[in-house]
Amino acid sequence: MAKSTRPVTIERPSPADERPAWSRVGIVAAVGFVLGIAWPKLAGVKVGPNVPGDLKAQVEVTAPPTSAQAAPPAAAPAPTGAPTAEPAAAPSNKQTVAVGPGKISRCWDKKNKKVTDCGALQLDPVAVPKLQGLAECPSAVGLSGKLTLGLEIDFEKKEVHVVKNKKDKTTIPTSTVTGIVQCASRAFANLPLEDVPNKYRNYTVQYGLTFYPPGKAPEEAEAPAGEGEAAAGSTTSEAEANGTGVVSWDTALVRKDPKDGEVVARLVRGTKIKLVGRRNDWFKVETGGKTGWIYRGAIGL
């Protein structure tokens, strides 16, 4: 019996079916372009030669110095035994104010009774920086001369009034003095009197100021101008302290000045020290022939 055969059919694609899918080709090309640009930056790889700026930087770093750029020869050593001159202090290019020692002229107790001996008042740490700041007062620009300012302090009301010393024989013009007093009044308006230990209610304190114009080297200011008036006391940067203490920390630092001063000694636990002064939370002590400041917590105070 003969087998039935299927007719063979041949399908011929049309020209449209043989065209590539341009949309897919575009997507693949775009992805490849992005990866080709981005991956060197992500991997930290530098493609291509250095730009002229980079080459210039390398030349400047690696090139040996020329004869014109060679280091200057070292100075010849000083002869043995020759005295070494200390460099002179260069004059300041800013207006400066040197503040002399403070003098207490009068003080009164809480009953408004005048006291003969006012003792010492720990006023310098808060008052001297304010007085030195008068160098920036507009009336003090280019000023050269001496002036005495008085501070009338009321600790109960926490007020400070700045006045010119009536006995001051200054050569500074009156209008300039008035301007300086106004600047000082603004500076002392918020004086932290709570940081100043005081025994009496009211004090009148005088400070002698010396103004130096730019280019002049400041020197120590002289005593207040009203020298004919007997002093009832003086200002100081520290209060008196008496007694002894014992270091309670494993290691306590003794500094040349409170808080940020140079360390002059290190004391171990149990070291006995002598107390000779105090400034807020710091005690002035003597130990082993050295004098310095130690934080009160280090001696359990």
TrEMBL record:
Gene3D superfamilies linked: SH3 Domains
Residue ranges, annotated region (Disordered): 63-100, 216-242
Keyword Cell division: no
Pfam families noted in UniProt: SH3_3 (PF08239)
InterPro entries (UniProt xref): SH3-like_bac-type (IPR003646)
Alphabetized UniProt keyword annotations: Membrane, Transmembrane, Transmembrane helix
Regions crossing the membrane: 21-39
Domain SH3b: residue ranges: 259-297
Protein name: SH3 domain-containing protein
